[in-house]
Amino acid sequence: MSFDLSGKVALVTGAGGGIGQAIAIDLAAIGAKVAVNYLSNREGAEETIRMIKEQGGEAIMFQADVTDIDQIEALAAEVQEKLGTIDILVNNAGHLVERRKIEDMTMDLWRKIIDVNLTSAAFMSKAVIPGMKEKGSGTIINLSSVAAHDGGGPGAVPYATTKGAIITFTKGLAKELAPSGIRVNSLSPGFVDQTKFHATFNTEEGRKATVAKIPLGRGGVPKDISGAVLYLTSPYASFITGETIEINGGMFMK
């Protein structure tokens, strides 16, 4: 069985680089019209659009802060107006923000981390659900992390907490939306090279130590994650909902 996403509209949040960029490019490669969302990395989003168009795909860039409810609603409305009803939502936007121990945590920083990693996924989903219900189908994919299982690295308690919550949110929303023909799943990446996250919050020594613990002997790359997104949007995954796929080279095994 082969498949393509011609006629489908996909919105990928945080698609200005790394994992989000790879997801947007690969969805466009099999026919989806892609809405490339970014917060501040306009140059990265433009690069995503350029690469999509180079391979003959269709994409439009949309700037929005997905922690702001007004901007979320405006984003969903603008995508629908310019591309059509959203069939696929990938809640990729997320950020560790800052490493800080709980004893030094402020309420403002805590809320910022919760909002960018969890609240954004909840309310972005809320914004696209009505259109999906009207069509009787849809796919929502959330991004969790191996931190959901191991508690994260030093100073990452709030980040790990949000990623654990994403898994539970995915299960609950999957149950809620299944009668409407909408599937909801999540992906839980481990260490992924070629991303701003690890370039910012890791050292080369830390990278080598982490890779040494991975049974497959290498760090992940963004394409490892985008491949799983393609699977979850395909007919092969039509009976899968509420699941979390671990993508970590064996670093964490259930």
Features:
single chain, 7 strands, Rossmann fold, globular, seven-stranded parallel beta sheet, 254 residues, alpha/beta, 9 helices
Rg, please?
Answer: 17 Å
| CATH-level-4 superfamily name | NAD(P)-binding Rossmann-like Domain
Q: β content, as a range?
A: 5-15%
Q: How large is the count of helical segments?
A: 9
- SSE ordering: EHEHEHEHEHHEHHHE
Number of domains: 1
How many strands, what sense, and barrel or not for the largest sheet?
7 strands, parallel
Helix proportion of residues, in percent?
40-55%
Distance between the termini: 30 Å
What fold name stands as the CATH topology? Rossmann fold
- Strands, total number: 7
Strand order of the largest sheet: 3-2-1-4-5-6-7
Which consecutive residue ranges, at least 5 long each, have pLDDT under 50? none
What sort of overall outline do the alpha carbons produce when their principal axes are compared?
A: globular
Q: Which CATH class?
A: Alpha Beta
Q: Which second-level CATH architecture applies?
A: 3-Layer(aba) Sandwich
Mean pLDDT: 95
Going by helix content, strand content and strand pairing, the class is alpha/beta
